[in-house]
Amino acid sequence: MKSAQFICAILILAACTSPASKQAESNSWTVNEYNKDGLRIDITNHQLENFSIHISRKNDALNLDLNALHIPFKTPEVSWVNKDFICISTWWSGPFARELFIPLGKQLKNYIYIDKDIEWTDSISNNVLYIDTILNGQVKLVLENLLSRKKKLISYPLNPERASDTYYDSLQLTKKQLTIWTDGKARSFGMKI
């Protein structure tokens, strides 16, 4: 009986004194975010301190380390996938996120990171709308096509009576036009890039 208690005590003591590095590794985990038509996207949380994104397709792979790329994050997720791009949102504070766009060309080797407040992404036209600057009472939005990388600048006046962090009431983006509602009034802009 005493020998069984002694062996049990040694096993408990050994379990409690295992190296810290082995215990810390258990705090990492990988989630499969997308797996369809031979394209797989996994997101790994490394000990609650970093995220990496692993994209694989047939004999091709791309690994993105968000810390190394200086991209803010808390909870990255796949927002959409189409035949041309993967869009990954890297939520970092409340409603604020940054987006990574990974082209699905012949090789998985590049990514597009726009370090701006992205207001709208369109998985059908591959257009992205983001705030470029707010200066001299004007909001400058940029509509960019991810395939061609062509850009169109859209500028409209701020209402000085609005709160400083609200630039518009709502947006509607179609293939042909952008409509911005501000203070109950709509302004439309042609979308040809």
Widest sheet, order of strands: 1-2-3-4
**Overall 3D geometry?**
globular
Query: Oligomeric status of the shown chains?
Result: single chain
Structural class from helices and strands? mainly beta
Instruction: Give the CA-CA distance, first to last residue.
Output: 83 Å
Output the helix-strand order: HHEEEEEEEEEEEEEEE
| Average pLDDT | 84
Poorly predicted runs:
6-24
Beta content comes to over 45%
Tally of strands: 15
Q: What's the story with the biggest beta sheet?
A: 4 strands, antiparallel
Tally the helices: 2
Radius of gyration: 24 Å
Please bin the fraction of helical residues: 10-25%
Structure description:
The structure is a single chain. The protein is mainly beta. It has a domain at 27-115. The protein is 11% helix and 53% strand. It has helices at 2-16, 20-25, and strands spanning 29-36, 39-46, 50-57, 60-65, 75-81, 85-93, 96-103, 112-113, 117-122, 127-135, 138-145, 151-157, 170-173, 177-182, 185-190. The strands form four sheets. Strands 1-2-3-4 form a four-stranded antiparallel sheet, with no helix packed on it. It is globular and about 50 Å long.
Features:
193 residues, four-stranded antiparallel beta sheet, 2 helices
Sequence-ordered SSE layout with sheet pairings:
Blueprint: H1 2-16, H2 20-25, E1 29-36, E2 39-46, E3 50-57, E4 60-65, E5 75-81, E6 85-93, E7 96-103, E8 112-113, E9 117-122, E10 127-135, E11 138-145, E12 151-157, E13 170-173, E14 177-182, E15 185-190
Antiparallel strand pairs: 1-2, 2-3, 3-4, 5-6, 6-7, 7-8, 9-10, 10-11, 11-12, 13-14, 14-15
